[in-house]
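INFO  loader      accepted 1 record
INFO  loader      residues=152
INFO  predictor   begin
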Amino acid sequence: MASRLEQRKRTRTLLVIIILLSMACYCLGIVVLQIGRARGSGATATPTGLPPTTTHTNTPITPTPSLAASATITVSPTATVTWTPSMTYTPFTPPTPTPTATQTATPSPTPTATFTSTPSATPQPPSATPTPTSTPLPPVDTNTPTNTPETP
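INFO  predictor   done
INFO  writer      dumping tokens
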């Protein structure tokens, strides 16, 4: 009996460890998603096809002293090509469904044959059932008394 209790305790411990590890993985996944959303929420740079910007830098003219009696002037213009990207927000618009007219065949009513019976002049044989007759009833008095005020 003790081994069965130990086996249950070991199984319960193992299941608790698995549950705790899976919860830790879920939490780590939520943190990674939040960090990814925070990074991806900014606007992305989209090249707009503008030509690159050219920047000219002129170095100042400085006389260089020398031992000889001549002066040397050095001019060295340097052209630097700089591309400046501009950020363009491009929202996603899903396509809208367009209704299309379609022809549908509608069945018309189909004529059907209807059979009707026409009465014929066939004589009925005499029956043995009695024919009802009417007997006169005595008249019933239907006079009802009414109050009529007397005039003076």
